[in-house]
Amino acid sequence: MRHVLCAYLRHWPIDRLRRRRPELRRKPLVLTETSGNRQTIVHVSPETPADIYPGMALAAARARHTEVLDLPATPAADLCALEAMGHWLMRFSPSVCVYPPSSLFLDATGLKRLYGGLENFRRQVAQALASLRVTAAVTIAPTPGAAWALAAFGKNGSHIVTNEQVLPALSPLPPEVLRLDSKTVGVLSALGVRTIGSLLQLPRNDLAVRFGPAILMRIDQATGAAHEPLTYLVHRSPIRAMLEFEGAIESLDAIHFAVQELARQIAAQLAGRGQGARELRLTFRQPYASPVEKVIRLVRPCRNESALVKLICCAIENLEASEGFVAATLAVIAAERLGDEQAALIGGEEERDAAELDHLVERLRARLDRGVEWGELLESNLPENASRCRDTVAKPDAPSARGAVDLLRPLRLLRQPRSIKVMVRPSESRDGEPVSFTDCGEVHRLDHIRGPERITGQWWNGRWKTRDYFDVLDAAGDRYWIFRVPQSGWWFLHGIFE
Amino acid sequence: MPEAANPKHRPLVPPPTSARGTSSYSYAELDVTTNFSFLRGASHPDELVYRAAELGYTAIAVTDINSVAGIVRAHQAAKEAGIKLCVGARLRFVDAPDVLVWVENRAGYASVCRLLTTGKRRAEKGSCILYLQDLLSVPTGLLAALVCRSIDPQIGEPDPAAIDTAAAALRDAFGRGLSIAASRVFGPLDRMMLHHAESVSRTYGVPMLATNQVHYHDEHRQTLQDVLTCVRHGCTIQDAGFRLFPNGERFIKPPEDMHHLFGDLPAALRRTVEIAERCAFSLDELRYEYPDEIVPTGKTPASYLAELAWVGAAGRYPQGIPEKVRRQIVHELTLIEELKIEPYFLTVFDLVRFARSRGILCQGRGSAANSAVCYCLGVTSVDPNRIDVLFERFVSAARDEPPDIDVDFEHERREEVIQYLYEKYGRERAGMTAEVISYRGRSAVRDVGKAMGLGLDAVDALAKRLEGWSSGAPLDEQVREAGLDPTDRTVRLVVALTRELLGFPRHLSQHVGGMVMTRGPLCELVPIENASMADRTVIEWDKDDIDAIGILKVDVLALGMLTALAKGMKLINDTHPTQPPIELHTIPPEDPGVYVMVSDADTIGVFQIESRAQMSMLPRLRPNKFYDLVIEVAIVRPGPIQGDMVHPYLRRRDGIEPVSFPKPELEAVLGKTLGVPLFQEQAMKMAMVAAGFTAGEADQLRRAMAAWRHAGSIEKFQQKMIDGMLANGYDRDFAERCFNQIKGFGEYGFPESHAASFALLVYASAWIKRYHPAAFCCALLNSQPMGFYAPAQIVRDAREHGVEVRAIEVNRSDWDCTLESATHSAASVPTADKRTWGIGGPAVRLGLRMIKGLQAAHAQQIVERRHQHGPFRSIDDFHAATELPVSAVAKLSEADAFASLPKSRRVALWETLALPEERSPLAMPPGESAAPALSPMTVGQEIHADYGTTGLSLKGHPVQLIRTELTRRKVIPAAEVWNRPHGRWVSVAGVVIIRQRPGTAKGIVFETLEDETGIVNLIIRPDVYDRCRNAARSASVLQADGYVERQGQVQHVMAVRLQDLTELVSNCSLRSRDFH
Fold first, then answer.
1. ipTM > 0.95?
2. Which residue, B47, B105, B154, B926, shows the most beta carbons closer than 10 Å to its own?
């Protein structure tokens, strides 16, 4: 006979969040969903006052209780974590099924003897979840439907073993425990059908005519009259490959061979899972010293064998090992879904160029062992805020902003504007034009000036000062970008044209 | 969103008194974007004009983007400041760079308006689609300048090739009237663009013109302009980037600065003055002319009006015109002729005649509406014999503007009247007045907060703190309450910017009913645009602008009560076919029974006097003649309440206090109201008689009160009025009260003439309620939504008056509620007991319209098929005959409309669910399968379901379900409260039917509870409200504990404690629904 354990994680999104952020424990907390300008509450923690409930506008809740914390709900992350939780629970039963949004089924058939009774099994799962600070109702029943119904609506911890016990246990529960759609539940309630008991008294044919076949299927799945198949998680081992050598190897050729072999194995494993590597860890074991490790991060997921080999070779160029290596391990730390076609094969020219650039970046990173950065243009009228550098692993998702290039900006901008002395004409005038400037003791006589270009400070950040920029050419033919702060009359050198 | 209602005209700021600089440099700013280029310009038109005058400019232009909406205000300011205004616009084309145009003469103005109308009528509301070709075809009377600097930084400068093409085309069209506008705005491309402009200038022989692309009057407004830019783009200031101007140079610079900037281009500076001189057009030239159609050929307006008046009079007084009325008509006609405002009366008459021909009930109100002439023309039904009319008071010979007549129409049929006007005068000659929607506290803080990057929640919290019509920026305390730190830099900026943004126009909307008609094309007077509503077109100016220019406007307003009255009178006339039909003016006047009912505050559903405040006033005022109703309507208003005039009036009326006048000269003004000023015109008149204001000043005072941007101007008037009254020997207390009253009138002015028109509707609706309660109930239900009360209260009130109300029933109900003959006809004996008034009269059958979510078309289908098919025999029969979708049948079952088949709700629903969605003609009728064992509903469930589907129940009241529990809690029924003495502690409970927080009540909240025995009025003081905020704000069933407060016939419970019982009732009605 079949036995199914259901763990219904009543406050899963909140429990998950609190596992990561312990400071949120025991505080009234709600999770919200934003659509347009409206924030709606979708989950409430048990500590939240009773007059705040899911479906309520956050603003309405705030009006009632100001002390309630709110955070955005993250259903995708919750689901991922639920899957991870499912994998973890495989230690209790090899067959675990994730039932979104917040339930897990464990096949308990035949486990009775292993755990010394089903109740023991149930208790162990419940305790394990409790120790992880996950609120869960855990039940066992002969069908997934009944187990879910009892977990979600029944008394916590109840479990039933025989088919005969199913009906009496379900009868007093409301029809929604059968996992019916909300419209059907609403109509049943209007008809005065408030329990499964009274639902089952209605003629089956009449029910099917009125509500469609789904309702009969759900009833049968709960009572065991119909089988409900569950899709179980597949156990996944980490992707890694290892080579052990007979004695220490030192020759470059041997190492290259090893690298090729590792990459081949890894690529094959990745292909089998439809994934590409984003982060790899390469470990070489030395005979008398601690292992040498190298982490390689990729800009885009990849499982192309030759590309991986090239990349690893770059990474090990400066590896030092006097005694040689006795073993090499290549492990995938992070992988992402990658379609069957390699982008490089089907992509247009642009796509290929982008891939080329990515590979270049990856190799540079692997070789230089230091962060390689993207220069990125930003929209800002303030020159020093008009660009920034960012890490290459996180690619800019939006196309780069319209830069300040067409605004006739110098290519080199000093990190910090440098104070300079300037002669102006007419002299003493607060807004005279510069004639010459002295920078680091060197006098530059100015032949050409263009400007001023006036730029107001970011007043919203408390920077109210204005700058008057001049684009100037000195007698030596060098072009500079200097500015004056009208409020103080001070001059600065800010950039050099090349 | 900015609040839509009541964006009163901001008062014009008095021009700065400081000595005006006269500059030896001559320069005119011709490129000025005001805040009527919404979310761009950061100064009001008047601020810009005054600033220009202060700097010694002799002329300034206003050139808003595809609009002339701001020029009336600029014009008024320019007149006051003694500076020349060049009327213009910045035209934005789909296919060319911007072009500035200025108006040389009236013809040029007409072509700009026509051009903008063309562009706006092509586009949807609020936008304008123009092509360069549109401008090239109408160059008469216009000067133009091609703009070669963009005012949208994120778009970038215009393409040089496009400038060349446009310059060539424009030069051919405008010849010497064309310039090329260049600006030095300290941008990186200044020099390049200037070079280009110079080369275009040389190539095409077009003179250069210097401008500064002004967006604000003072450099400090740069911050606000940046914020507006963010609001326009929907971004925060941190992310705005290149959408902002890089600097704050676009303000009105002193002419010498402009000379400094354009030192190398003196011709470009001279050109500004030259153009300003050529712009000879002033808005003063616009003359309003009445449409011709209203007078038949061969007649003069005067003779035609007189003819209509006398014919009308003969009709109104079949027994002969009373001498008093005859003299009045002669007098009024003379005065009208003197003021030459006959066409105005004829225009209104035309509207009313149309409405009458379609059977649409209407009623005029407004200053001139209650004249004898209007009564004869049928504009109003207020018999001049019934009320003393002093015509001069309404039509002032001093003010050269047409009188004010608003006409209310049935709210469901007003659109017909509006469309009639469009049809009669054409889209070119008629349009609706615009309403400028301005920033108020809440909308301003919302937009500024968002732009400054405060979180959505913080913005929300802050906006919520600014309740209702708050007109100010948030105070420190409110900021703190919203959980923000008032000393934080960003928060301080938000508060300061919000204050500046207050009163800024945000967009144009349509006025509630102002229609403008002209003799010539209206689109040559002001641009016309499409409204968001289909078939409506709106002009760019609002009603204050129209007043300023002197354009005729007729308010075509919608009034729910007129719909109800029309329906009520039709029901009465249909049920009494043998009697002469009831009409507004044939309702028997001065019926004592009506006044007795009104004095008892038995006025649920009666026009105006059904509100809680009015109802508590009625037993004190005890109206017993028509004029008492006029006072009743006017007295419960912010004006008299804030002026503290209500109690003095009541005391004088009751004879407790002698009627006296502060000074004998006021007797003429205040005689009718026992020496207490109650009406708006009395207050204005007092400002004139007692404080020495001129008529114009009094009017200005009223306008200043209506707006609220600059507190300073109000204080000045206050000082002047109080000083004036003190000087004339009034005591300070009285003077201050008078002033407060005017302040109260500001926002909600209520003159006697309006009150009189309303009082007539009060009387008419009260009369119907008293003598035809069933028709009254039926008509109100069929006119929903309107009035104060929900259908449940209207039905309950009808039943309390002995009217039989019958349930919705597929075999009997129409879409509307209908009258059915009574089952037993007890002779209708007049009796004082109100419970008998409806007995013997017809019964009300609730209509299908009461069912929430049922479509009218489906209801019509039911009624139609019922006529062909006869009564339905079963649900299947019903479905086969009506062919309604199953979902509609399900709605009917849930609303218990099959009860007579007889099918209970649940059985009906069960059967409905089995109906096929598509019926094939060959299908066999299903055999009557035995109904399954569905548990019958309890009374509680029935009531609950009734409320859920129709909003009312004839089977009982939700509160009765929890009566045992309430008794346990020592809660007494509402009817019992009457038996408790004043001051006694009681507990009451009921469904909350009204929640009100009047602005005049200092934070006190009024709520009304209803249980199965009656209603109780609660008074909730602010401290109690704060303590029990959740219950007070959101409970639908409430328990209140407190003291009985009784004053004569008026009683309240002064709440001390409130509890939310909503759960209790819903649990109870679903008692059988027990989970777990």
1. no
2. B47
